[in-house]
Structure formats: C-alpha cells, structure tokens
Automatic annotation (TrEMBL):
Keywords: Aminoacyl-tRNA synthetase, ATP-binding, Cytoplasm, Ligase, Nucleotide-binding, Protein biosynthesis. InterPro entries: Aa-tRNA-synt_II, aa-tRNA-synth_II, aa-tRNA-synth_II/BPL/LPL, Asn-tRNA-ligase, Asp/Asn-tRNA-synth_IIb, NA-bd_OB-fold, NA-bd_OB_tRNA. The keyword rRNA-binding does not apply. PANTHER family: ASPARAGINE--TRNA LIGASE, MITOCHONDRIAL-RELATED, ASPARTYL/LYSYL-TRNA SYNTHETASE. This is Asparagine--tRNA ligase. The lineage of its organism: Bacteria, Bacillati, Bacillota, Bacilli, Bacillales. The gene is asnC. It comes from Virgibacillus pantothenticus. Belongs to the class-II aminoacyl-tRNA synthetase family. Homodimer.
C-alpha cells in the first residue's frame, strides 16, 4: 500500500493509499460519514460507509473532532461533484492526535479574531488558496528571471542610508552607528548590475508608514530587477512580459485555488503583453474628465485616482513620465523635458493600485552630484552609490514589484493582510 498526498491522489485512481491528514469538517448520518480532509497539499472528501469498515473505525469517523490528525486509508475514486474530481473511500483511520475546542469553527468570525489566530487561520481553505497562489507567483518569478539570464543577488536588510529618504524607515542602532531596516534593495542592485549585467533580488522590505489602508503592510516582500545597458522603453517591455508570465502561470497551475476563492478569471485572461501606456499629463486630464476637478499637475496620485485610471482599461496600465518633484532623486530626466523623469508606475486593474514602480536611473556623474546637493544627501553615506557613475557608468534601468499587492490582485483578495503568512500592520505584531 502506497503512502501519498492528496495532491498526488489522482495518480492512484482505483488504488488503496494511506494519507496523513487533518479533519477540517464532517457530517454524518446513521450509516455514512463524510470527512473533509486536508494535508497541506490539498483538500479531499473521505467517505466512511458503516457496512464497509469496522465498528471501531465508523465510531471514530462519527466522533472525530475538527483539526484532529490521523493516518487515513482508502481507495481513490473519481467524483464529478467535487472540484478536486476525486474522493477517498475510507477503509481505516488511525488517530494521531485528537484536538479539542478548536477556536476557528465553521461559522463567521470577525477579522480581529481571525488575525489573532492567524497561526491557525492559515489552515482554512481560503487562506490555503491564497498562499498557494503566492507560492506560484514566487516560483514563476524565479523561472522568468532565471530563464532570461538574470543573476539573483541579495541586498542587505540593515543599511546605513535610504533609497528614498529616511522619514518612513525603522531606525536602529548598529553598534555605534545609526542604521535602518531596508525600504528597498534598489541602490545595491544597481551596484550588482554593474558587476553582473542583469540581476534581481527578492526579499523583505520595511516601511514605517502609519497607514491603515487595505493596500499597506509594514513588512512586505519586493522583487527588484536591475539591468545594465537597458533604457526606459526596454524596461517597460520587460515589466509587461514578466507580469504577463506570472499571471498566465497562476491561471495554468492554480485552477483549484482560483476556484476556491471564486475568482473571476476573465480579467486575468486578458493580461497579455503589451500593456496600455499613458503619460502623467494624460492621466491628469483623464482624472479631470472623471470628476477629479481638484487634482493639479505636480500632485501624486492616491488610491482613488489610480482606481479611476484603471477603470478605463481592461489590462494593467503604465503611467509614465511623472513630475521630477514627486519622484526619487535617482530617476533620469526626460531628454525633452526637464520637469518629468523617465519612470512608470504599473497600475493593476479592478482597484488594486500600483504594483510596480520603475525608472531609468541617472547615469551621469555631474547630474547625480547635483541631485545629491538638491536632496541634502551626505557624500559619506552615499559615496559608494556615486562611484557607480564614476567608474564605467552605463545607461541602466530597474523596477520593483510589490509581492503582496500582486497576490491580492491576482487572487482577488480585498486586503493585503491575507496575502502574507503573518502580516505586520500598524497595530499588529502578533502572532
């Protein structure tokens, strides 16, 4: 008899197997019990017929409690009514641990209660689906960049300077020096690109922004590619190809998870490169036409603005050429307009907001020195970054994709707190 997992069960059609599992729910009548089982790889129904098992096994099936663990033996058979397509005809149950008073019962619970029990909430079918989609996005990310010749480089988490200013960073002492938790690995990835050509990082970042919106986390994960000899237009093509690849990978490999979340996949099926592009100037005009009469040129866009812009398109949309004054010091000016920079934000459909921010970086030493002076950057803390323009500078571009917002969009989840295993929010550091 083969020991296997639920996800591999279809490979053992009409065969008897043994699976280690937990009970998520059950119902029973006088002569039959239906056990909803999970094992971490998937979910399956176990059917226990009184006449087909010992009296001891049937009584165990009727009385077993939610989240009790077991080894369960049975035959894998097709079941057209199941989303999974198979069920387990149970012949034996070996109880491992009997759980009592499991706090998350099959009823409605408030968000705060579920967040307090996040360590257990992860076991639910919905959370399982979200985390599997997150995992597929990560897997597809590695595949895309590895297949396209990128080298993964890991930037530091503790830094002595900031990529975009220090007002919203977590400060800490690094022995006798001031240090920060990284808000971006970008500056270090630029150094890596000058050594390896095309690189990407994937790691945690931290922002001490006191925001409670559904789009914000204190700790989140970023994918940050950086590319030497790549200019702005080529970078946009790489971004749209990457996002298209990830979405199509999820559609192909996470059908059951999308179904479990009741995700309407019709909008995701449209996510194929190329993506539409509008300039910041055009976005301002579009917003005014949509009733945002107070928006002025030079202002950054908030969530309502991004949502309104996205509603005009059926794919993610690039907003390009933002004003210099609202973007980071390292972004290269537009060759024909000094008041805007060669940058783009990628706005996801359906109100999920910005998922990518990117730009061509300044590669001219004199201009970067001017930016240092304008932004009050100390030469000592940023000297190494300046030297990238001093020794073999080349045109280069990069971008950062926020993993949790991307998971929220693809999975159709309302709040990013469900898209990371243990979210860190403004008022939450537990569990």
């Amino acid at each position: 008899m083969k020991t296997t997992t639920i996800s591999q069960a279809p490979n053992y059609h009409e065969q008897t197997v043994k699976i280690g599992a937990w009970l998520t729910n059950k119902r029973s009548s006088g002569k039959i019990a239906f056990l909803q089982l999970r094992d971490g790889t998937g979910f399956i129904q176990g059917v226990v017929v009184k006449n087909d098992v010992s009296e001891e096994t049937f009584q165990l099936a009727k009385n077993i409690t939610q989240e009790s663990s077991m080894y369960i033996t049975g035959k894998i058979v097709e079941d057209a009514r199941s989303p999974f397509g198979y069920e387990l005809q149970v012949s034996d149950i070996e109880l491992i641990h009997e759980a009592h008073d499991y706090p998350i019962t099959p009823k409605e619970h408030g968000t705060e209660f579920l967040m307090d029990h996040r360590h257990l909430w992860l076991r639910s079918k919905r959370q399982h689906a979200v985390m599997k989609i997150r995992n597929e996005i990560i897997r597809a990310t590695y595949q895309f960049f590895n297949d396209n010749g990128y080298v993964k480089i890991d930037p530091p988490i503790l830094t002595g300077s900031s990529a975009e200013g220090t007002t919203e960073l977590f400060h800490t002492k690094y022995f006798d020096e001031e240090a920060y938790l990284s808000q971006s690995g970008q500056l270090y990835m630029e150094a890596a690109a000058m050594a390896f050509g095309k690189v990407f990082s994937f790691g945690p970042t931290f922002r001490a922004e006191k925001s409670k919106t559904r789009r914000h986390l204190i700790e989140f994960w970023m994918i940050e590619p950086e590319m030497a000899f790549v200019e702005h237009e080529e970078s946009l093509e790489i971004q749209e190809n990457y996002v298209s690849f990830v979405v199509q990978s999820v559609l192909k490999n996470c059908k059951l998870e999308l179904q479990a979340l009741d995700r309407d996949i019709s909008s995701l099926e449209k996510v194929q490169a190329p993506f539409p592009r509008i300039t910041y100037d055009e976005a301002i005009e579009l917003l005014k036409e949509k009733g945002f009469t107070d928006i002025e040129w030079g202002e950054d866009f908030g969530a309502p603005h991004e949502t309104a812009i996205a509603e005009s398109f059926d794919k993610p949309v690039f907003i390009t050429n933002y004003p210099t004054g609202i973007k980071a010091f390292y972004m290269k000016p537009h060759p024909e307009r000094e008041d805007v920079v060669l940058c783009a934000d990628l706005i996801a459909p359906e109100g999920y907001g910005e998922i990518i921010g990117g730009s061509q970086r300044i590669d001219d030493l004199e201009l970067m020195e001017q930016r240092y002076e304008e932004h009050g950057l100390t030469g000592e803390a940023y000297q190494w970054y300046l030297e990238l323009r001093k020794y073999g500078s080349v045109p280069h571009s990069g971008f950062g994709l926020g993993l949790e917002r991307t998971v929220a969009w693809i999975a159709g989840v309302d709040h990013v707190r469900e898209t990371i295993p243990f979210p860190r929010l403004l008022n939450r550091l537990y569990p």
